[in-house]
Specification:
mainly alpha, flat, 3 domains, transmembrane, single chain, K_chnl_Slo-like, 60% helix, disordered N terminus, Helix Hairpins, potassium transport
């Protein structure tokens, strides 16, 4: 789940004052602080992220704009590159930052933007940006801090996984099978993906050959798994985040009096505390 401490290390929450302060100090404050200015900055970054994801979703249609599409593509690449560079510089240890899988996903998305003519067929992987956003500590410290480590966060993460998979699979079907029987456009690819993922199986749109059949099987298996995880997140009892000071168990029932693991007496504050 989301980390409780700031990624930048100590001092990130102190608002920088005076002239001549290092750029890194400001970036740590903006990306990792909890003061109003830092929160407003991160909200603006998230709004831009959502707009970029909307562009990725519409890319199969917008690519017919010609040169204007590539101009917009490079503008978004510049924004994403600046954001990643700022996050890396604000991080306490860049080498440790580069070890995070989410970072490598974002770097790959950036590569598809910088080389659209060569990597456009892999452009469907840009929708992984939705997954990296909704699974990032950056998002949960800004928008979802009230739902941190709760049932709401689990539902949002499960839904993000499902939605991301739907659009990544749709993009792959569109890029690979466009022009084949039944796949005449992006909507056809989306229709096939959803029908297969839900195991509805209308049969009016099918993919040719063994490759198409294997892909359909993969979509069904992964789709069922993600649906089950979302259903599990929706129906499981709500938990609260309150670490036991004896055994360290982090999740407890909201009305728990004793720790289930060690029996230690708990004093979980309620909403009015």
């Amino acid at each position: 789940m989301a980390q409780k401490k700031t990624e930048a290390g100590t001092g990130a929450d102190a608002e920088p004052r005076g002239e001549g302060l290092r750029l890194r100090t400001w970036l740590r404050y903006l990306y990792h602080g909890s003061r109003p200015l830092a929160v407003k900055f991160r909200l603006a970054v998230i709004v831009v992220d959502v707009a970029i994801i909307a562009f990725f979703l519409a890319s199969p249609i917008l690519k017919n704009m010609g040169w204007a599409f590539y101009v917009l593509d490079y503008v978004i690449a510049a924004l994403l590159a600046a954001d990643l560079a700022a996050r890396a510089y604000a991080y306490a240890d860049i080498k440790d930052w580069l070890k995070r899988p989410i970072v490598w996903v974002d770097l790959f998305v950036l590569a598809t933007l910088l080389f659209p003519a060569w990597l456009f067929n892999l452009g469907f992987l840009r929708m992984l940006r939705l997954w990296t956003l909704l699974n990032s500590d950056f998002f949960w410290r800004t928008v979802g801090h009230r739902f941190d480590d709760t049932r709401v966060e689990g539902i949002v993460r499960a839904m993000a996984n499902l939605v991301t998979f739907v659009f990544v699979a749709t993009g792959f079907v569109y890029a690979t099978f466009l022009g084949h029987e039944g796949i005449a456009g992006y909507v056809d690819a989306l229709y096939f993906t959803v029908a297969t993922l839900t195991t509805t199986g209308f049969g009016d749109v099918t993919l040719p050959g063994p490759t198409g059949k294997l892909l359909s099987i993969a979509i069904m298996l992964v789709g069922i798994t993600l649906f089950l995880r979302l259903a599990q997140a929706l129906i499981k009892p709500a938990k609260v985040s309150y670490p036991c000071d004896r055994c360290g168990l982090h999740k407890h029932d909201a009305d728990a009096v004793h720790c289930k693991a060690c029996g230690n007496l708990l004093c979980i504050p309620d909403e009015g505390s």
